[in-house]
Amino acid sequence: MNRSIVFLFLAVSLVLGGCIESQLLVTVNRDGSGSITETVRMKKAIGEMFRDMAMSMQQGMQGAMDEEGAMDEEGAEAQPDDTPPELPGEMEMFTEETIRSAAENMGAGVRYDNHEMIDTPEHTGYMATYVFDDVSTVNVSQNPMSKVPDMPGMTSSEGEDGDELVAFRFTPGNPATLVIRPPQDLNDDGDEEPASDEGVSETDEQDIEEGEEGMEQMKEFLRDMRMLLQVRVEGGITSTNATYVEGSTVTMMDINFNTLLDDPERFKELEKAENAGPEAMKALLKSIPGLRVETEEEVSVSFR
């Protein structure tokens, strides 16, 4: 059952707040080829804060290297291979290079096609299109963290085991069949992670109290945060087990925090539901307005 992304999204939200709005549309043709359209928006105010943090980190790294250099002059063992990091004049949140290279993390055969930058009074970002010949080689990430530029000294986590990757399997025919496999919340044995038997500790209770006290402040950070992942097929759908279908489009995930935050009791329910059973979690997800998450382990779409 696809539960892990919900809690990943909640956890990332606490750190990044409403800085990211990510929309991903995978379009599949009758021969298995297609395109990926990715739209990413970040609030400029949060982006500026992120940039300031990045600059501070690089300056700290520079200072540490300078101190090591001073120690070497006083007789410490020299480190000839250490080079102080270069400080950029101004850090861009989204660059053409990173947008183009994102294709490498979407699977073999995915190629960059084009992009447009987004620059409004409130937001910065981009809308990019990538193309592929065989959707069976495509892997797209549901991890909102993968859309955020890396801090200096850190390497990108996109494409690593921690990412939430959606895989595809295509069978040609009339009708053609597309199978979409969301990330699975499984343990090493292939079973769903069992619920913890441990009770709530004093530390947990304190964390809950602090979380309740900071709910209003957290709402401001989460406002306008959204993640949307949809798959559209060429032609008409003849059969599918997908939960959310509109015309030829299947919605795998649509998390809109604006409507979710307007119902704080449900929001708390979702936070506490990590150990809920599959059926209980499925019912809870369906009951929350503004939150659509596909709960099928595999989604099959036949179309012609």
Describe the structure concisely.
By secondary structure, this protein is of the alpha+beta class.
Oligomer, anyone?
single chain
Largest sheet: 8 strands, mixed
Figure out the total of helices: 8
Q: Whole-number average pLDDT?
A: 74
Overall shape = globular
Radius of gyration: 22 Å
Order of helices and strands: HEEHHEEEEEHHEEEEHHHEE
Number of strands: 13
Strand residue percentage:
25-35%
Total tally of structural domains: 1
Helix content: 25-40%
Terminus-to-terminus distance? 28 Å
User: Unreliable runs, pLDDT <50, ≥5 residues?
Assistant: 11-17, 151-162, 185-197
Structural class computed from helices and strand pairing: alpha+beta
Task: List the defining traits of the structure above.
304 residues, eight-stranded mixed beta sheet, 8 helices, 13 strands, 30% helix, globular
Could you characterize what this model shows?
The chain is of the alpha+beta class and 304 residues long. The protein has one domain. It is 30% helix and 28% strand. A hairpin with a 5-residue loop joins strand 1 and strand 2. The longest helix is centred in the first third of the chain and has 30 residues, at 44-73. The model is unreliable at 11-17, 151-162 and 185-197 (pLDDT under 50).
Topology:
Blueprint lengths: L3 H13 L3 E9 L5 E10 H30 L22 H6 L9 E9 L3 E10 L6 E3 L23 E7 L4 E6 L20 H12 L1 H8 L3 E8 L3 E4 L4 E2 L2 E8 H5 L2 H8 L6 H10 L3 E3 L5 E5 L1
Parallel strand pairs: 1-8
Antiparallel strand pairs: 1-2, 2-4, 3-4, 5-6, 6-7, 7-13, 8-11, 9-13, 10-11, 11-12
